[in-house]
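Entry 14. Structure prediction run on the chain below.
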Amino acid sequence: CARARQPRVAFIPTGSELVPAGIKPRRGQNVDTNSLMCKHLLIEYGAEPVVFPLVHDDPVELERAFEAALATADVVVVNGGSALGEEDFNVKLVERRGQVVHHYIAAVPGRPLMLAVADGKPVVDLPAPPWPPTSAPNGACSDHGAHPGNSAAPPPRRAGAGDAAKTSIPKMANIARVHVTRDDEGYAAHFLDFKAGELAACMTSNAQRVSPLGEAGWAEGDLLDVELLRGEEFVDQARERLKRPRRCRCRRKPRFEGENHGFRATTRPLPTNSRRPASRKGDSEPPTKQRLE
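Output returned:
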């Protein structure tokens, strides 16, 4: 039988503050990392990504890129401008060009996400920060079957014990990244917080969890259903790294050794080019005063 054609998904990064990857950003600029992440996520989902060049926050440029994407792709994904700010032109563009199906989902992060239809093609407007674009495509594509032709098995799910108590917003589905480890008693789930400076750890975590609506939180030790983003072998490797003792990478010996360790304390000699002359035996006045006389 003939193999189904891979759907072409256009990705349009928007934002006047963005610069391409590989260019050092100046003050007030950010590197466009979402294009790279979403490109490889789409490939993983079985789609053919078409990544557009950066588009500034200009209504004319945005409309030109949007029309080109509709003409060449089956699905259009716009990144940025999904809120209701003064420079969020993408919402107005999609409303004028197509029909908005839903705006502002009950999930965090990524609440301003928008779903629409234009020329009979699905349109998704993702929020700009790097964390929502990694979570929203996963939920939109993986859970709702928006990636035809991809026969990959769904990610494995495990029940892990929460290592700390957490609170959640009952009206929102909280998309959280989790670091899962395993021992003789089972799996343990450590929840990461990108708002507390753990963004890098969130991006490299090995699991995630979407809290169900109505959940107000959990207590330490409660079993929680988490989705592994990597194979079981990576969970084992992470556990092995935690067991290894830390080694000191410092190769230089300390300048002063304490007596408690059985070493003799050493002192550094004074520099020979000192500006203050050394005092001599029998001097009744300070050397500075003698020099002034």
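The radius of gyration is 29 Å.
Filed with the rest of this week's runs.
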